[in-house]
Amino acid sequence: MVNDRLRDRFRSDSDIDALPPRSLIKIINIPASAPVSPWWLISRRMIYALALIFVSSAVVYIDRDGYTGVVTFLDAVYYSAVSLSTTGYGDITPVTQSARLVNILVITPMRVIFLILLVGTTLSVLTEESRKTLQIRRWRRHMRNHTVVIGYGTKGRAATTALLADGVPSSQIVVVDSDPEALTHASSRGLVTVQGQATRSDVLKLAGVTRARAVVVAPNQDDTAVLITLSVREIAASATIVASVRESENSHLLRQSGADSVVVSSETAGRMLGLATVSPSVTGMMEDLLSPDEGFSVAERVVGEDEVGGNPRNLEDIVLGVVRSGVLYRVDSSEAETVEPGDRLLYIRRITGGPDTN
């Protein structure tokens, strides 16, 4: 009943996901590649234009008997430059049927392309919207097995920082938020952003939740987190959902809504504060373990072939637990006495300047 009331509270009749890509330009933002120097763009267009003139000159020179006034290759170059630039002095003209056919099928299309190159800068501005439309359509078609971070506040930013530091490409992270400033910050880090209320299933579909590998639910309010988790689980049955709540009494609602893992932010902060009063050094080590881009870090890897059959406590890495068939066993439990094929090891990794490749 609680879940139904929450769903009705945030339900929307409009379906953004059904809009055409052109209408999504202000909703979905895909970071562009590094800007290209304008001098390079001009030089590249000049090279293309010269190439067109050369090809046209070669075609005209090969069929020079079909033109009046074409004797040398320079004459052919002169005719091509005058013709492609639409100057058209008229001192050289095609007179045979074959030469005129070549002008229709070859020279005229080249003239159009040549003009496009000359006004390429203006056309680039005019076609920017079309470029973004094609980019959005291509992204929605090919995005698979990515991670969606819902909510780009303090928790969402920390989650994306951990993902990036752990080797996840920025192109494989999609941020959903309704705050334009937060999305601008996410875009500056190379992340794809979707603007909208994540409590709406159509916004979640825009972010590709139905094809996502994992979804991080990190809004500011617990009731919103419950509704988002419900909506995500409804449209993405196989995605791994990691959710955050402020109060521990709401964690069971998230699990009932479909969250695979729940992090209670208030209790975690409270424990850290308690540890800091008793043993500040322990707090420093815990913060180090939770920072994947420096010092030590808790990581997970597949067990090696030479490690199968051994005791995880005797391995070179400091192993904390064994994940088998999706279940975590502590290293001191009876189930984790022997490493089996397909197991994954939860261990302490030493950061040496780059992400782990295991």
UniProtKB/TrEMBL annotation:
Indicate the transmembrane segments per the record: 46-62, 104-127
> What does UniProt list as this organism's lineage?
Bacteria, Bacillati, Actinomycetota, Actinomycetes, Mycobacteriales
Q: Where does the record say this protein resides?
A: Cell membrane
Specify where it is mainly localized.
membrane
GO cellular component, alphabetical, reads: plasma membrane
* GO process annotations (BP): potassium ion transport
Record protein name field: Putative NAD-binding component of Kef-type K+ transport system
Matching InterPro entries, A to Z?
K_chnl_dom (IPR013099), NAD(P)-bd_dom_sf (IPR036291), RCK_N (IPR003148), Trk_Ktr_HKT_K-transport (IPR050721)
Q: How is the protein disposed in the membrane?
A: Multi-pass membrane protein
